[in-house]
Write a structure and sequence with these properties.
Number of helices: 3
Order of helices and strands: HHH
Oligomer: single chain
Shape: globular
Distance between the termini: 32 Å
Strand content: under 5%
Number of strands: 0
Largest sheet: none
Length: about 90
């Protein structure tokens, strides 16, 4: 059973910190669209949740705080990393 969270800490509510957080999520293979709730993210093949209940709570709190502070800029920041991930997928 997993006891340690795989979710990086959001250091503060700055735009730079938000970018760093998305970068770490990408590096950990955990990136997802910020408008999706963490509990809705599942493995395509198995349909099993990607995140534990504890991680879902952490993620939803972090993403909610980002949207509260930065609004739609959250999606703009995430898009950069989602785009990089997509390019890696299609080139490999």
């Amino acid at each position: 059973m997993q006891t340690q969270s795989r979710i990086p800490q959001l250091l503060n509510n700055s735009y730079s910190s938000m970018n760093d957080w998305f970068s770490k999520m990408q590096a950990n293979g955990l990136l997802f669209h910020p408008e999706d709730r963490a509990g809705d993210i599942v493995e395509i093949v198995s349909g099993k949740p990607i995140f534990s209940a504890k991680e879902c709570t952490e993620l939803d709190q972090i993403i909610d705080a980002m949207f509260e502070k930065h609004g739609e800029k959250v999606c703009d920041a995430a898009y950069k990393y989602v785009h990089e991930e997509f390019l890696q997928m299609i080139t490999h």
